[in-house]
From TrEMBL:
Matching InterPro entries: NAD(P)-bd_dom_sf (IPR036291), P5C_Rdtase_cat_N (IPR028939), Pyrroline-COOH_reductase (IPR000304)
Lineage, top ranks: Bacteria, Bacillati, Actinomycetota, Actinomycetes, Streptosporangiales
Name used for this protein in its record: Pyrroline-5-carboxylate reductase
Listed SUPFAM superfamilies: NAD(P)-binding Rossmann-fold domains
The EC number(s) this enzyme carries: 1.5.1.2
UniProt cross-references to Pfam families, sorted A to Z: F420_oxidored
GO molecular function: pyrroline-5-carboxylate reductase activity
């Protein structure tokens, strides 16, 4: 696919453009919506094949694949009245917006594919969940780190809920850092140390030969400090609270 359009040029729109273009020998032509003007202008200056359109209809008319990346609450304003003929392929990255909902808004018979690109598509290092599988869309996300097509929209929503846990992970690390700083460790030293510790965790996650339970056990001395924090803080009540929060998120996404 040579022509890709993006309606909604914010965080995730920008990550997709950078992933498709940065250091790529033969990048696609990319057509951006005018809103998010500063980001759109910056991207079109930085990448040769990227241009800003006069309006959202021009994005659609110029593109074989159109990525919809506005916030959920902005979708009607952004999309109502657009004409999307059946020959285009629409990629819906809006969290919590099902394809039925989007089809009503766009009133089109064009193929609609849901996708969950994450910011790491910028470095082409993130696997993108898609539903339903479509060869052109799957090959687009292959270029950005990989594609994981799933069997139905219910499975898609489960993966979508999982992606809602990322910033909690950063907040957890920030809390560890603040705790150490509260005990007199210079904040910078605390943060550098915590980042290093969990970069090690990231590397060990790359070892697919060990299950997550195995990795936890391998890092734990019986009756040691790790076992103590796991069993006294991440205890059954905490784990169940997390499960309930995920269930509630899933219910809202579905
Ligand atoms: N951030 C992430 O990691 C992920 C986000 N998503 C989904 O992607 C979507 C966008 O998220 P994110 O990039 O974080 O949000 P941002 O707020 O960063 O970007 C949304 C963009 O949409 C633009 N916009 C608003 N109204 C219109 C319109 N009428 N026509 C064209 N563009 C418009 C906004 O412009 P302006 O600034 O002028 O308002 C803004 O640039 C959401 O639905 C989210 O659920 C999905 C996966 C991951």
């Amino acid at each position: 696919m040579r022509d890709i359009g993006i309606i909604g040029v914010g965080e995730i729109g920008r990550a997709i453009v950078d992933g498709l273009c940065d250091g790529v020998e033969d990048p696609p032509r990319i057509h951006l919506s005018p809103r998010g003007a500063r980001t759109a202008a910056e991207l079109s200056e930085r990448h040769e094949g990227v241009r800003v359109c006069a309006g959202n209809q021009e994005v659609v008319d110029s593109s074989e694949i159109v990525v919809i990346a506005v916030r959920r609450q902005d979708r009607h304003e952004a999309l109502a009245g657009l004409k999307v003929d059946d020959g285009r392929i629409v990629v819906n990255v809006m969290a919590g917006v099902g394809n039925d909902d989007l089809r009503r808004t766009l009133a089109t018979d064009a193929p609609l594919v849901r996708a969950i690109p994450l910011p790491a598509v910028r470095e082409r290092r993130s696997v993108t969940v898609t539903y339903p599988s479509h060869p052109a869309v799957d090959s687009l996300f292959e270029r950005l780190g990989g594609t994981l097509p799933v069997a139905d929209e219910a499975a898609f929503d489960v993966f979508s809920a999982l992606t809602g846990t990322l910033t909690t992970h950063y907040a957890y690390l920030a809390t560890l850092t603040s705790w150490a700083a509260g005990h007199g460790i210079p904040p910078e030293a605390a943060e550098t140390y915590v980042r290093g510790l969990f970069q090690g965790v990231g590397r060990s996650l790359g070892d697919g030969t060990r299950s997550l339970r195995r990795l936890a056990a391998d890092h734990e001395t019986p009756n040691g400090s790790n076992e103590r924090i796991r069993t006294t803080w991440f205890d059954r009540a905490n784990s169940e609270a997390l499960t309930r929060a995920l269930d509630a998120l899933l219910a809202d996404l579905a």
